[in-house]
Amino acid sequence: MEYVIGCMKETTTKITNIRAYMVTALYNAPNTMNHYYQQLVQHDMYGGGWEEKGMFERKAEGDG
């Protein structure tokens, strides 16, 4: 439920039939949730998220 509500808050398109939108979002949530969180982690780990925040230092070439 939290994932679906979060996605609804982030949408920029106008939802005309809220009931149909909610039913569809809940039905599709298990399929889309995994991809959403996987991409979030990928971005944080490899998109500069951890390195920019100083949580992880990139190894210099030749450090093995």
What report would you give on this structure?
The protein is an all-alpha fold and 64 residues long. The protein has one domain. The chain is 66% helix and 0% strand. The chain is built from 3 helices and no strands. It has helices spanning 2-10, 18-46, 49-52. The longest helix has 29 residues, at 18-46.
The counted number of beta strands is: 0
Given the structure, what is the number of helices?
3
- Sheet with the most strands? none
User: What is the helix content?
Assistant: 55-70%
Shape: elongated
Gap from first CA to last CA? 44 Å
H/E element sequence: HHH
Which runs of at least 5 residues are low in confidence (pLDDT < 50)?
none
Tell me the structural class: mainly alpha
What share of the residues does DSSP label as strand, in percent?
A: under 5%
Number of domain units: 1
Average pLDDT works out at 76
CA-based gyration radius:
18 Å
What is the fold's blueprint, element by element?
Layout: H1 2-10, H2 18-46, H3 49-52
Tags for this model:
64 residues, mainly alpha, 3 helices, 0% strand
Give a summary of the structure in a few sentences:
The chain is mostly helical and 64 residues long.
